[in-house]
UniProtKB/TrEMBL annotation:
<dbReference type="Pfam" id="PF07534">
    <property type="entry name" value="TLD"/>
</dbReference>
<protein>
    <recommendedName>
        <fullName>Oxidation resistance protein 1</fullName>
    </recommendedName>
</protein>
<feature type="domain" description="TLDc">
    <location>
        <begin position="19"/>
        <end position="190"/>
    </location>
</feature>
<keyword id="KW-0496">Mitochondrion</keyword>
<comment type="similarity">
    <text>Belongs to the OXR1 family.</text>
</comment>
<dbReference type="InterPro" id="IPR006571">
    <property type="entry name" value="TLDc_dom"/>
</dbReference>
<dbReference type="GO" id="GO:0005739">
    <property type="term" value="C:mitochondrion"/>
</dbReference>
Length: 192
């Protein structure tokens, strides 16, 4: 049995209840994490749209390695809240680097929580369409001209569609037609 998740928020000593990641949601996500990351006791919020501003560049900088970076690759949980109150996001194991190609490992997965139902979508392993980050957008998945999860540079809207990379349903039940999803907040947590 894993130890309970300790939610520590770095921004202005914000208490856990000020974020959207509850201990219940963190435990649901943790069940799908690779063992070395499931053992992480601290999930530190390193970026919040609400507190740090609406900027993909700022979120990317928040993932940069520090002088006391662990020996193993980093791990992050991305959380998006839409205007219908749905929560969805991803788990990934790379620093967010703006590159003209896909990267990250097949350990990455997408997740969604609406009402009381949590669903995870692991990478299917059939391609390398995992994570794609440019100055204009952040995307996960691909393979059919769409993204499983896509956020624009100002993090004000997202899209989500089925892709063969994750075999996922659209992550926001309110926008299953693939239309733009108005984003209320984005949070990024680093696992320690």
């Amino acid at each position: 049995m894993s130890a309970p998740v300790d939610l520590f928020h770095s921004t202005l000593n914000i208490q856990a209840e000020n974020g959207h990641l509850t201990k219940e949601l963190a435990c649901s996500i943790r069940e799908f994490l690779p063992t070395r990351y499931a053992a992480a006791e601290v999930w530190k919020r390193v970026y919040s749209l609400y507190h740090d501003g609406a900027s993909l560049n700022t979120m990317c900088r928040a993932t940069e390695p520090t002088s006391h970076a662990p020996k193993y690759p980093p791990a992050f949980v991305l959380l998006v809240k839409d205007d219908a109150g749905n929560l969805f996001g991803s788990f990934f194991t790379s620093y967010l680097r703006q590159k003209p190609h896909y990267y990250d490992t097949e350990e990455c997965f997408l997740w969604t929580k609406s009402k009381d139902k949590f669903t995870a979508f692991p990478h299917c392993g059939q391609d390398q369409f995992v994570l794609y980050c440019t100055k204009e957008f952040l995307g996960f998945g691909g393979g059919n001209g769409k993204f499983s999860l896509w956020l624009n540079a100002s993090l004000e809207y997202a899209t989500s569609s089925f892709t063969p990379a994750f075999g996922n349903a659209p992550l926001s039940p309110a926008y299953e037609d693939g239309s733009r999803i108005p984003v209320i907040d984005v949070e990024l947590y680093k696992l320690y």
